[in-house]
Amino acid sequence: MTAIFGQSRPTWCTSLRRLRIEAATALEVVREARAAAPLETVGLLSGQELRIATRCHPLPNVATDATCRFLADPHAQFVAEQEIAAAGEYIVAIYHSHPNGDAGFSEIDKHFSSRWDCVHLVVGLSGGVQVRAYERDPLDDLVEVTVEIGAESR
Ligand SMILES: [Zn+2]
Q: Which residues surround ligand 1, an ion (CB under 5 A)?
């Protein structure tokens, strides 16, 4: 199955309510968020499994007010989606940062997430790094997803 946005995904995964990010990938996202500040960063997380992010794909933020909004460059996003699909991976999540806020979901984020059916990861940078994730449940309610960083403990 290819991993282009809008295509159907296995429905069983939506009940898991968790997202695992490999440590190196999580570090890369935080590094991106810090480097972009005071602007918001945006990008895709991908992996061979729907709930395990192993690669980070930073995208240019072309929002007119990128200090409090994000809009991924459409061409860069297209190229990243093609590369993810060619690698046989899924788009696991969209991430963005709040350089001056926590990792809570803003009203803009709620609106944005209603149009993208995947996990949304937010990196908050005020008062230390905070990472939270959200998704829409089958009734379209916004629910928080547990974020686990690092290898799975057995
Ligand atoms: Zn946001």
A: 106, 109
Q: How close is the Cα of 85 to the center of ligand 1, in Å?
A: 26
The yes-or-no verdict on residue 6 having pLDDT over 70 is: no
- pLDDT tens digit sequence for 99-137: 999 999 999 999 888 888 889 999 999 989 999 999 988
| First-residue to last-residue Cα distance in the chain | 28
CATH number of the domain at 21-149, please? 3.40.140.10
In this prediction the pTM is: 0.87
Strands, sheet with 42-47, edge to edge from the N-terminal-most edge strand: 52-53, 18-21, 142-149, 130-136, 119-124, 90-98, 42-47, 55-59
> What tokens appear for 45 in the block?
């997380």
What residue ranges do the domains of the chain occupy?
21-149
